[in-house]
């Protein structure tokens, strides 16, 4: 496999340190394509292997790439409490169908500091009985934090599940003022 994919696509990546641990950010010329929590060497290598398989190209480490610069700047500003909305081009090629529809609605319709229930989000996309499918879409989100799946909670007040771990979800919600700071 070379560094250019099936359509000449290149994928660049970098790991950035955050208050919730290292995040892997990957981008194509279309935009940010993947964000991965807990990007230790093992997790990073697994994520890069999945990206290579899905996009048909070997991701290249390039923390100084113009394709990543703005994403890194905005992620840093978000964790510093200086940014409440991401304004980045996104490459949605890792997700499709209902999951993409739900994630696009989440990205545009649930602002910083707010939460939405799984069922409410299902209703917003015209599928009122699809709360569990919304949960599946959240678990498949290739762009967590930027597409804020941490803002989706249970209707009974529980915080629900989270691919990055419940401690990470609590920290993100606390950062946005939705929950008190975690005690751990």
TrEMBL record:
Question: What Gene Ontology terms describe what this protein does at the molecular function level?
Answer: DNA binding; metal ion binding; methylated-DNA-[protein]-cysteine S-methyltransferase activity
Where primarily located? cytoplasm
Q: Where is the Methylated-DNA-[protein]-cysteine S-methyltransferase DNA binding domain positioned along the sequence?
A: 98-178
Q: What's one GO BP annotation on this UniProt entry?
A: DNA alkylation repair
Q: Where in the cell is it found?
A: Cytoplasm
Give the matching InterPro entries: MethylDNA_cys_MeTrfase_AS (IPR001497), MethylDNA_cys_MeTrfase_DNA-bd (IPR014048), MethylDNA_cys_MeTrfase_DNAb (IPR036217), MethylG_MeTrfase_N (IPR008332), MGMT (IPR023546), MGMT_N_sf (IPR036631), WH-like_DNA-bd_sf (IPR036388)
**Cofactors:** Zn(2+)
What PROSITE patterns does the record point to?
A: MGMT
The yes or no answer to whether the keyword Zinc is present is: yes
Q: Which reaction does it catalyse?
A: a 4-O-methyl-thymidine in DNA + L-cysteinyl-[protein] = a thymidine in DNA + S-methyl-L-cysteinyl-[protein]; a 6-O-methyl-2'-deoxyguanosine in DNA + L-cysteinyl-[protein] = S-methyl-L-cysteinyl-[protein] + a 2'-deoxyguanosine in DNA
Q: Which residues form the Methylguanine DNA methyltransferase ribonuclease-like domain?
A: 11-91
Explain the purpose of this protein: Involved in the cellular defense against the biological effects of O6-methylguanine (O6-MeG) and O4-methylthymine (O4-MeT) in DNA. Repairs the methylated nucleobase in DNA by stoichiometrically transferring the methyl group to a cysteine residue in the enzyme. This is a suicide reaction: the enzyme is irreversibly inactivated.
The entry's other comment says: This enzyme catalyzes only one turnover and therefore is not strictly catalytic. According to one definition, an enzyme is a biocatalyst that acts repeatedly and over many reaction cycles.
State the family it belongs to.
Belongs to the MGMT family.
Protein name according to UniProt: Methylated-DNA--protein-cysteine methyltransferase
**Which organism's genome codes for this protein?**
Streptomyces griseoruber
